[in-house]
Design the sequence.
């Protein structure tokens, strides 16, 4: 939205159509058959799709942290104080291949534990999750912004780890944690590099603008149909989410390697994926050199 509002997407004589696609048509299918040129989604989709024979490759890395907090239920906070305490934990995450589950798996591995050392609980509505935490049915929850505020306001959980910031993410995992990316078919990017180059320039410029402006200035370019009627509530969420985008567009190789390790530990079929093929920094390098 910011890239579009600032005019970066349609700069240099290009015309980019942004499509908000839901689950009715898989974006992987649309990317494979050419109905779309690129997709914005989390980096781990590139690893998953590579394992399924789809040659997807991230060309810009937007998110460098999970953009989430980990909360511990009030009834369990005396037991869980550090990562080392996670053995035997019951963690509310998401489905088997979700970003929340990837984060919870990464936490357990960062603690030096095995994935079998914790129990993953499927994600539900926020009200049901709050009730589960309050009733002793779970110990921790992976909470993207602003969900963490909701559980705290209900008095059922308190912060355990902050994975919204670069500092908190590095402290927990030892590296950054790539999340939101723009990716294309690698063969399309190679055969038609001007499309990838344009998108890289647009999003590199957007990241630079966001990282040099205040949350108030960023919020000012967001239209009311996106922010909703409660601009104050939207602004609070925006401020929590902005640290996730504290990068310049590059994929950190060590972070990609670590996320690959997390995914391939959970699902051995991902071990055949060559992590260096799941992203490229060449278009971002060119954009930064302009």
Sequence:
């Amino acid at each position: 939205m910011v890239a579009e509002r600032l005019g970066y997407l349609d700069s240099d004589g290009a015309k980019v159509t942004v499509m908000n696609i839901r689950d009715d048509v898989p974006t992987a299918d649309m990317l494979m058959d050419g109905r779309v040129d690129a997709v914005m989604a989390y980096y781990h989709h590139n690893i998953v799709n590579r394992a399924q024979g789809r040659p997807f490759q991230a060309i810009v890395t937007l998110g460098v942290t999970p953009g989430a907090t980990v909360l511990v239920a009030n009834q369990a906070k005396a037991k869980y104080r550090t990562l080392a305490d996670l053995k035997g934990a019951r963690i509310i995450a998401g489905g088997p291949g979700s970003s929340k589950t990837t984060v919870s798996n990464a936490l357990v591995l960062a603690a030096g534990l095995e994935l079998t050392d914790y129990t993953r609980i499927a994600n539900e509505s926020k009200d049901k999750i709050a009730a589960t935490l309050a009733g002793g049915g779970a110990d921790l929850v992976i909470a993207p912004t602003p969900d963490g505020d909701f559980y705290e306001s209900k008095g059922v959980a308190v912060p355990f780890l902050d994975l919204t910031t670069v500092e908190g993410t590095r402290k927990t995992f030892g590296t950054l944690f790539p999340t939101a990316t723009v990716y294309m078919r690698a063969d399309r990017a190679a055969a038609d590099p001007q499309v990838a180059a344009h998108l890289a320039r647009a999003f590199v410029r957007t990241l630079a603008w966001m990282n040099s402006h205040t949350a108030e200035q960023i919020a000012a370019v967001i239209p009311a149909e996106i922010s909703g009627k409660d601009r104050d509530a939207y602004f609070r969420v925006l401020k929590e989410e902005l640290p996730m985008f504290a990068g310049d567009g590059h994929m950190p190789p060590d972070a990609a390697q670590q996320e690959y390790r997390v995914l391939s530990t959970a699902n051995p079929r991902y071990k055949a994926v060559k992590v260096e093929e799941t992203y490229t920094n060449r278009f971002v390098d060119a954009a930064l050199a302009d």
Summary: The chain is about 40% helix and 15% strand.
